[in-house]
């Protein structure tokens, strides 16, 4: 049966259809034609005590070998005590995945998010931003994303609605508009300082992502036009008829260039010729490739180069259409920006009203600076998700260096489970909780 609804009926209608078609509740008993999926759904969609792997209402820390029982004060409301076994920093997709796994493990935790609304970075993307994959391949642990009711892959707005519904579904303890400013040692615990107070935790999961730290390369010259980064771009309308330079040969650069093609006078600049992935490759395939690479490296096999070996740009429909229409004509990188626009090494010049830098991001890890764990490359050495020099700290969702495809919705669940399992086990060292 086709469970998709016509466009315009909204996320809530899709949500109802997702539950009501083929799945019937009677108490806590569920029935479905797909028995394999039935078992997964029953385990994760509100199974009562004793069903599934762990009971959701299990007392925090009960019976776990690597955990200690929380102090009586720690069982009080987080708003009063400021104390938890685990503090998760960031309430986007990685933070929610961590929260789900911590809840299933029966740990006492809180999620601190600087954003006032749900959705993480997805609520800040450009208007035409979409997933690389169908909804069925874009799921956080426990609950699949409901089908997108419109044509094509799910939009950023659909993802935001899914994330908002997810955190409500599992009643995750999220404190919004609370920005973590520093994490430091406080005896055997962590002190997590925020702009509204201080938290005490035995372990920290950092899930702040990269969106909040855009990378802008240094470029000589005195350009007087508009300078923007991917994070500043919303749509092509404001650039209609203008001379616009887009810099970057990755997914953001290709998608924004395709968005502007035919609307603005586009110049697309990349350091090397664009490398498109095969047209049939989507996010699910990329996750599988990244996972196989990690497994190969862990077993001493040759490095397959993973996703980077296939290409840099996923040929989503908008990019494919612009490419095939000849609208994505690339130029080599310019040498400098003068007041009027880019200048190439051969002296060629081009006027620009705006330059949009799609030059990527860096991990947003400034709050961890007091721990002095970062290397000269700005990363924290990890074993899986665990910081090598601080086993009570885990990093989620920053890229392949914190787990295969961990910066994607489909990939972050696996690394979140591994992080929580490691916390329960004591991180391979002493029991840490």
From TrEMBL:
**One Pfam family matching this protein:** Pyr_redox_3
InterPro entries per UniProt? Auxin_biosynth/cation_transpt, FAD/NAD-bd_sf
**Basic residues composition-biased segments:** 24-45
- List the residue ranges of the region (Disordered): 18-65
Mind telling me which residue stretches traverse the membrane in this protein?
Answer: none
State any single GO MF term.
Answer: monooxygenase activity
Assigned keywords, A-Z: Oxidoreductase
The record ties this protein, via PANTHER family, to: FLAVIN-BINDING MONOOXYGENASE-LIKE PROTEIN (AFU_ORTHOLOGUE AFUA_4G09220), FLAVIN-CONTAINING MONOOXYGENASE
Name of the protein described by the UniProt record: Pyridine nucleotide-disulfide oxidoreductase
Source organism of the structure: Amycolatopsis lurida NRRL 2430
């Amino acid at each position: 049966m086709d469970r998709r609804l016509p466009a315009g009926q909204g996320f809530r209608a899709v949500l109802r259809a997702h539950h009501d078609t083929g799945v019937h509740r009677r108490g806590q008993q569920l029935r479905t034609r797909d028995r394999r999926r039935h078992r997964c759904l029953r385990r994760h969609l509100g199974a009562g005590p004793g069903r599934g792997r762990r009971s959701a209402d299990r007392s925090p820390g009960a019976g776990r070998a690597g955990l200690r029982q929380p102090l009586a004060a720690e069982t009080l409301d987080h708003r009063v005590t400021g104390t938890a076994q685990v503090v998760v920093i960031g309430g986007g997709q990685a933070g929610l995945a961590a929260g789900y796994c911590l809840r299933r493990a029966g740990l006492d935790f809180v999620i601190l998010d600087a954003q006032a609304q749900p959705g993480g970075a997805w609520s800040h993307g450009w208007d035409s931003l979409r997933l690389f994959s169908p909804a069925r391949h874009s799921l956080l642990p426990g609950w699949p994303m409901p089908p997108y009711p419109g044509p094509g892959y799910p939009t950023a707005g659909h993802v935001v609605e899914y994330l908002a519904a997810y955190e409500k579904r599992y009643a995750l303890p999220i404190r919004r508009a609370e920005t973590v400013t520093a994490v430091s040692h406080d005896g055997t615990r962590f002190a997590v300082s925020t702009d509204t107070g201080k938290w005490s935790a035995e372990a920290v999961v950092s899930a702040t992502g990269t969106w909040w730290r855009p990378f802008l390369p240094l470029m000589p010259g005195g350009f007087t036009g508009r300078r923007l980064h991917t994070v500043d771009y919303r749509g092509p309308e404001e650039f209609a008829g203008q001379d616009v330079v887009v810099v970057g040969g990755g997914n953001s650069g290709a998608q924004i260039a395709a968005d502007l093609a035919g609307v603005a006078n586009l110049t697309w600049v990349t350091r090397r010729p664009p490398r498109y992935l095969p047209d049939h490759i989507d996010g699910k395939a990329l996750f599988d490739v990244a996972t196989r690479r990690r497994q190969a490296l862990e077993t001493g096999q040759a490095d397959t180069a993973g996703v980077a070996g296939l290409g840099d740009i996923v040929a989503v429909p908008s990019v494919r259409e612009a490419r095939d229409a000849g609208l994505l004509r690339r130029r080599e990188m310019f040498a400098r920006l003068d007041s009027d626009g880019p200048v190439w090494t051969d002296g060629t010049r081009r006027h620009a009203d705006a330059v949009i830098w799609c030059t990527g991001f860096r991990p947003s890890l400034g709050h961890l600076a007091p721990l002095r764990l970062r290397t000269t490359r700005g990363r924290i050495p990890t074993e899986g998700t665990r910081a090598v020099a601080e086993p009570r700290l885990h990093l989620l969702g920053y890229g392949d260096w914190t787990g295969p495809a961990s910066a994607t919705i489909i990939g972050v669940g696996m690394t979140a489970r591994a992080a929580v399992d490691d916390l329960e086990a004591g991180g391979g060292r002493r029991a840490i909780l």
